[in-house]
Amino acid sequence: MKEIMIKKASGEMEPFSEDKLRESLKKAQALPEIINEIVEQIVSGLKDGASTSDIYHRAFSLLRKKHRFAAGRYRLKNAIMELGPTGYPFERFVAEILKSQGFSVEVGKIVQGACVTHELDIIAMKNNRHIMVECKFHNQAGIKSDVKTALYVQARFEDLKKRWQVQPGHGEKLHQAWLVTNTKLTSDAIKYANCVGINVIGWSHPPGESLQDLIEESGLHPLTSLTALSLSQKRQLLERGLILCKDILDNKNLLPAVGVNEAKISFVLKEIEELCKLQ
Fold first, then answer.
1. Domain range for 236
2. Whole-prediction pTM
């Protein structure tokens, strides 16, 4: 079979990988026979120069028709981007992921450094370790967090660390800086972070402990994953302070308030149950 070149969101060209498509559908927990059917339909119509976005939307459309509950898991990366346009919902989402790992968290805290004050996205604490977590949110595919972002995180961390080391008890004790982003990181950003001791978590980095892995492990899906809600309804729920699918279960009364009719509410709740694997 002739190698087909496709265009990534960054503009780079790469060979189409049927294995990658299968793996993404498998991660969404689509049934094997549905995976085979979707892959066959996409491969049969694929042409040189097709974009990864086109392939994703085609696969999502087919999956939504054939296995709708798996479609919500398949669109996870896009669902995270829909938490925008500001980064604040993403910060709260990351805080929930950290809480599921046993951290206690504070979001949006103002802390005095040696030189200036800083508003920290998240302070996470566990086993007497205090971590400064900087969340870098992008609402467009193809954008990477580069070395300048890692340098910025390290500079803030050093200013804060200097204060509490010089004035014990008068500064926020911080032992490490983390950078969490919903997209990829450049190789220089990863190299610099490893050199200075920043823990970096991106969409697919590090393997086994990436943001995608942490979300799937925790089962804490953003409400933007739901296919039964319109974009407007999701936006209204976010504006009311809800972030996770499970938040809707505790605030079912808000569904009619954002325009979800009675007949559709049961489907929304069923999708949440399937998406988050709630028993």
1. 221-276
2. 0.89
